[in-house]
């Protein structure tokens, strides 16, 4: 499971990642919900619903109610995807801000069923997921993905600890296989590649940027 450097305030990093993801999602505006995304199984609507569901699921896990898969899959966008995201981001931020949460056991059944994970590690996972899903949305709508360097550096520290073996990565698992990148690639590209994204991905039919 991913971890993070002890010197990092993982909850503050997570809050900043959520704020950045909100900026990207708000900027997506009226983009067609059926647009394909870098996540092969999801349209833009499906991706945004997943992000909302994850926020709600992590909030439930922080409060000892994360064991049931249903709490991770019940996110709704309604007529206002950004509003739904903002509400779920507030929910998870409040849950992560509770006293003692860093040492609290989290159930994350989508990652590893039946095993609890320390809160600090689980929040690191959410932070990483949030920042990379912001790229998924940005790439889908052709927008820039420019999180600040501290967020990328911190996310790299988490992503580098995700196992690269076939039991941890592949179809139906939490992560796709690592994508090769050139030596000296920017940190953002390295981060995406470690999470199974091709940094040069563009929507089908789009011109190569």
TrEMBL record:
Residues 24-138 form the Mycothiol-dependent maleylpyruvate isomerase metal-binding domain. GO terms for molecular function: metal ion binding. Pfam families: MDMPI_N. InterPro entries: CHP03086, DinB/YfiT-like, MDMPI_metal-binding. This is TIGR03086 family protein. It comes from Actinoallomurus iriomotensis.
């Amino acid at each position: 499971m991913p971890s993070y450097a002890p010197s990092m305030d993982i909850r503050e990093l997570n809050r900043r990642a959520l704020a950045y993801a909100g900026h990207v999602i708000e900027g997506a505006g009226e983009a067609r919900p059926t647009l394909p995304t870098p996540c092969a199984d999801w349209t833009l609507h499906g991706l945004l619903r997943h992000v909302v569901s994850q926020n709600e699921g992590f909030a439930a896990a922080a409060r000892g109610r994360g064991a049931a898969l249903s709490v991770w899959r019940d996110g709704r966008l309604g007529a206002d995807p950004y509003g739904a995201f903002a509400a779920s981001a507030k929910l998870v931020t409040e849950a992560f801000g509770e006293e003692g949460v860093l040492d609290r056991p989290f159930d994350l059944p989508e990652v590893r069923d039946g095993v609890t994970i320390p809160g600090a590690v689980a929040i690191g996972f959410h932070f990483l997921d949030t920042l990379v899903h912001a790229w998924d949305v940005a790439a889908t709508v052709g927008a820039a993905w420019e999180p600040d360097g501290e967020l990328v550096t911190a996310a790299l520290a988490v992503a580098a600890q995700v196992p690269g073996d076939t039991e941890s990565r592949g179809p139906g698992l939490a992560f796709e296989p690592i994508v090769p990148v050139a030596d000296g690639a920017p940190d953002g590209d390295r981060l995406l590649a470690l999470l199974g994204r091709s940094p040069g991905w563009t929507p089908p039919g789009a011109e190569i940027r």
